[in-house]
Amino acid sequence: MKKIFLIFSSAVVMLLLTFSLIQNKDIIAFQNYAGIDVLGQEANKAPIHRDKFNLEMNKFTKENNIVLAQRIVEPNKAGKTEFKYAIFGEGNLPKGLEKASTNTLKFSDITGSYLVVKGQVDPNILKSKFADLGYTAFPAVKTPLIRSLQMLLNATSVLCIFIFLLTFAGLSLIYRIKDLRFAGIRLISGESLAAVTLRPVKSDLTAIGIINLITWFIGLCILLFKKAFYLRTITVLSIGILIYIFVLLCISLILSIVYLFSLKKSTLMSLIKGKLPLKKIISIMLIAQFLSILTVGFTVKQFTGFYSIYQEMNLAKDKWQKASDRFIPNYSMTASATNRKEDDRRNKIEYNLVKDSIENHDALLCQNNLDRYLGQKELDGVKATDYLPEGNTIYVTPNYLSEQNVEISSKLKKRLQNLKPGEFGLLLPEKLKTQESKITKRFINLFNLDLKDTKFSNTSYSAIKGYLSNNQQRFLYNGSSLSNTETQFLKDPIIVVRTPTSTRSTPATNSYWSAALSKEISFKGYDSTIKILKDHKAYQWFSVVTNGNLNYLNSVNKFRTQLISLLIGSLMSVVTSIFMFAMNLLYFEEFRKEIFIKRLSGMTFTEIHFNYLLAQLTVLLVAAIGGFLLTKDLIIIVGTTILFIAMGSMMIYRQIKTEDTVAVTVMKGK
């Protein structure tokens, strides 16, 4: 049984690591080198022409006998991030780094990450060189292997591996207890105490080593087949598997130390007769049961949470199918300016880009506040469900109303499609009619802040108001790789309608539209999106143009994988718990003579086993309290506790029938 489990768990761990490496192979290859991050142009310095920059860098690399590779992120129609590299110096790119095309180099920005792929150079010398050329740069060290490994494992994977370790501990405990009966015979035959103690560890070492060696080789074959067979990926895979082996062996060794103490405390004759140090064993089993119950409750909670999210995400499938031609540009690392003047210049360019796209190319804004509340229920006293500008509100452009068939009068829709400077649409659910004045004032005050210290400071925003039916689910277009794609709908949000024309161009509104550009504004068509970015000379600030529908489908697939991992983990935790409860039979078996005598003397089952039953109930109660504190879900904890009570009751019922049968048999003189 244990070998079958080791084969299964080792294969799952290998697959988790291997496919994470394949998905992140470009990042893993990038992390293998030290270099420098060039963040932007220094203030008051004229920009250098690309051709002159290339000459300077080639000269610098030859003087220092190094090869530099500049990472360039290239958009593609599949919406995936592709890393290409421009090379400076005499040499070739190492395996795993792909050379950028001439066209890519033509539109690429000088800012970005530069890797030292051959030779060595003082990072400060590199920094000084870029400073001479007019750029701000910071040294970047080679990423430690263990950090690369951490990047590959999400919380679900770690939980699944933890359950595997717990299951292995449970199985090992069972085998150790069974093996105690033969320990006395081995000691009499001449084996030393250390040899008897380490025998199970040697057996585990052999099985774990052979099984993981096979899974490691299979993992290498998968990496080779998927073109991710680099030294860095091989090393990370090997370290991950070695850590798993090490932890398994540590568990085996710890249990063997307990095994050693049991052998020392028990007499040789008692071991030969099959008597066990039951009090210590039962104490260990009760602790294991406690951990098993906690783990089952936690994994079931995680599974149900992920499943409800997965169901909600699937509801958006038809909505995304209709919006499958919408694309979202994502900023690159170099998009941030290094000084206020440059930042304002870029924001103005991007404001004009957004204005042109919304007015002439059907670009669509759909902005929500969900990312404010990631990992927390409220922020600054405001919840995501509160009807406030930073709460249950979405900000959209007029075409959202048509695409999502928002039911308003044709007159109001036409009015919102032609918002004038200083106007915004405010569509409230019917249930908020009584709060209309207060809500309107809040939004006007908020938007007026954007006009402060500008030529529009003496003006004020005005709202074009309307009402919507209650109990409506509004689609959020959460398809950016930066968005919280788990939530695709909001119930009865306030809908605020805005356009670049209605907000006017101020430093604050320029910044607003610039920030929305790479996350909440979707463009029609891949080629037209690229063309708009290039026409407005903003293409070099974006790393990738992603398809919202593909991002959504990738998120659904990711959740499906996590669900499967959690399902496996939940099943394994239940199986482990069953093993732990099944080991309670040792108690009945070891004390069968005492139980039999007490039963004949007229004692009831409860009287005989009172201490045992009390210990079991205490474990269940403490585990239930701990599980509730961990999950905050009463239904799941009650259900889990009932499951274990049912399992315990079945064993008790079986034992009662067994004891009754034995007692009746003796009374009849058979």
From TrEMBL:
NCBIfam families: bact_immun_7tm (TIGR01654). Keywords: Membrane, Transmembrane, Transmembrane helix. InterPro entries: Bacteriocin_ass. This is Bacteriocin-associated integral membrane protein. Pfam families: DUF1430. The chain crosses the membrane at residues 151-175, 205-225, 237-261, 281-300, 563-588, 609-628, 634-653. It comes from the Bacteria.
